[in-house]
Backbone:
């Protein structure tokens, strides 16, 4: 296993590098602060979530350390992306995963690690925002990529459900991907979800579609432990609360519930 090479000292050094790197963005334009802090907190929470899932599936300490590093750097491209374009929408700026890998390479951040470990981390980061994971990849890399994608989703559910239910009701275009708050849902999004598929981002036309995209992530969860966590925290119910009460929404949630029941069968939950 390549993971043995990462010791606690290296993880701490990498965490220090992350803190230093963020300093310049935090002292930049004061108007950017809430968005920079949003992504910093997200990163810290994804580190926490990846450890939570990792422990539940029985990873060893050295694997948990590697998982932490993958989570720590997964969104490193977000800060530069925001500084350059003032948006987190990749299609209007850059692919933030690609940018993140570039930043890590240019700054030689992972150079103290063995090349095989370094490459694994970079590939897991590169895959984290893709529609699907590649078929041709090592099982070890896929394990960390799967963990990262689940941990990332768990924390985005926290961010969006907090946001939908915040008391002041203020809107933040940065979170909503600049989508309009118009009535109804798009037919393509409905079709995706009725077919038990994750929603294609190209199908999003309004804020309801965006909420449904987050519902559809259930079809892209890799570990039953993550699913149990989502249910325990009530994220799906919180999103449903802010969706229209329509026949189509009911149908979508019926299909979703059947899928969840199938996944959480007594056999799989063991
Ligand atoms: Fe990301």
Residues:
């Amino acid at each position: 296993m390549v993971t043995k090479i990462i010791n606690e000292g290296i993880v701490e050094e990498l965490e220090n590098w992350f803190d230093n790197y963020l300093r310049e963005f935090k002292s930049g334009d004061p108007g950017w602060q809430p968005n920079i802090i949003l992504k910093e907190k997200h990163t810290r929470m994804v580190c926490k979530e990846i450890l939570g899932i990792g422990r539940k599936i029985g990873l060893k300490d050295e694997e948990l350390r590697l998982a932490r590093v993958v989570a720590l750097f997964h969104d490193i491209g977000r800060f530069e992306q925001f500084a350059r374009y003032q948006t987190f929408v990749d299609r209007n700026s850059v692919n933030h995963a690609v940018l993140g890998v570039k930043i890590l390479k240019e700054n030689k951040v992972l150079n103290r690690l063995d090349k095989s470990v370094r490459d694994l981390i970079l590939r897991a980061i590169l895959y984290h925002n893709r529609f699907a994971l590649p078929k041709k990849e090592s099982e070890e890399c896929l394990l960390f990529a799967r963990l990262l994608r689940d941990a990332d989703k768990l924390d985005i559910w926290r961010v969006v459900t907090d946001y939908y239910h915040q008391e002041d009701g203020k809107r933040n275009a940065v979170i909503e991907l600049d989508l309009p708050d118009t009535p109804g849902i798009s037919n393509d999004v409905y079709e995706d979800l009725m077919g038990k598929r994750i929603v294609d981002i190209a199908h999003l036309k309004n804020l309801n579609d965006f909420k449904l995209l987050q519902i559809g992530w259930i079809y892209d969860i890799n570990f039953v432990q993550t699913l149990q966590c989502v249910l325990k925290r009530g994220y799906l119910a919180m999103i449903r609360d802010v969706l229209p009460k329509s026949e189509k929404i009911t149908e979508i949630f019926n299909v979703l519930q059947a899928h969840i029941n199938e996944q959480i069968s007594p056999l799989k939950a063991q």
Residues 74-75, 96, 128-129 surround fe (ii) ion (CB under 6 Å). Residues 2-153 form a domain with the Hypothetical protein af1432 fold (CATH 1.10.3210.10).
